Amino acid sequence: MTDPAPSRRVLLKISGEALMGDAHFGIEPSVAVRMARQIKTAHEQGAQVGVVVGGGNIWRGLSASASGMDRATADYMGMVATVLNGLTLQDALENEGVQSRVMTAIAMHEVAEPYIRRRAIRHMEKGRVVILVAGTGNPYFTTDTAAALRALELDVDILLMAKNKVDGVYSADPRTDPEATKFDVLSHQEALERNLKVMDASAMALCRDNNLPILVFDITSPDAITRAITGEQIGTLVSATPGA
């Protein structure tokens, strides 16, 4: 008798802006519910899921720094904002009957567990969705970098980069350039050389150097999270060997 195929383990990166829905600030609870239901569907099909959430719907450290605030202080405030989003997603998941754990890179014992790599992996193996907040715990690093780092630490099969109303990687910004063309597949190196804004350059270089594939997709399209987690070919696949 052969062993069953191993579970698909993924790391999903959700921007804070995606949690706003059609609002201009904050959290739209119904959006978190829709995300939770899609994660639940994939989870029920055997996927092990980790989620990194951003905080741009509440606070943007770079913008505050540009206005004169100390950069480290602004970035720490952004980390706290991600905790609010992580708790929102946890509540939505558990209302759907999905066990989850919020794990933070900065100490916040009353509301979240400290991020410990082996504990996070164990949670995932036990069927819990792990929500990773507070970025890397360090200023000057984006949540893109946190997502790439956690994906590698947790030995996931793929990093899923959910974009807000952009269905993949384009040659230019499709919202402003009607001549922009979409890539179905792309290499890490080409994305870096052409500055295609898949994620920040440090995060992309980390993925390239460790051969971590990335799927870029539109989180607002129907059932996009479920489809991405379960391996459907949507969006743009960025890998060391495009088309493989």
SSE blueprint and pairings:
Elements: E1 9-14, H1 29-44, E2 48-53, H2 61-66, H3 71-95, E3 100-104, E4 113-114, H4 117-125, E5 129-133, H5 143-153, E6 158-163, E7 169-170, E8 182-183, E9 185-187, H6 188-193, H7 201-209, E10 214-218, H8 224-229, E11 236-239
Parallel strand pairs: 1-2, 1-6, 2-5, 3-4, 3-5, 6-10, 9-11
Antiparallel strand pairs: 7-8, 10-11
Helix pairs in contact: 1-3, 5-7
If you had to describe this structure to a student in words, what would you say it looks like?
This protein is of the alpha/beta class and 244 residues long. It has a single domain, classed as Carbamate kinase (3-Layer(aba) Sandwich). A nine-stranded mixed β-sheet has the order 4-3-5-2-1-6-10-11-9, sandwiched between helices. It has a two-stranded antiparallel ribbon with strand order 7-8. The longest helix has 25 residues.
The largest pleated sheet is described as:
9 strands, mixed
Under the CATH scheme, the architecture is 3-Layer(aba) Sandwich
End-to-end distance, in Å? 30 Å
Number of domains: 1
The portion of residues assigned to helices is: 25-40%
Q: So how many helices?
A: 8
Q: Name the average pLDDT.
A: 91
Molecular shape = globular
Which value, in Å, is the CA radius of gyration?
Answer: 17 Å
Features of the shown structure:
8 helices, Carbamate kinase, single chain, two-stranded antiparallel ribbon, about 240 residues, about 20% strand, 9-stranded mixed beta sheet
Question: Short description, anyone?
Answer:
The chain has helices at 29-44, 61-66, 71-95, 117-125, 143-153, 188-193, 201-209, 224-229, and strands at 9-14, 48-53, 100-104, 113-114, 129-133, 158-163, 169-170, 182-183, 185-187, 214-218, 236-239. It has 244 residues and is an alpha/beta fold. The strands form two sheets. The protein has a nine-stranded mixed sheet, with helices on both faces.
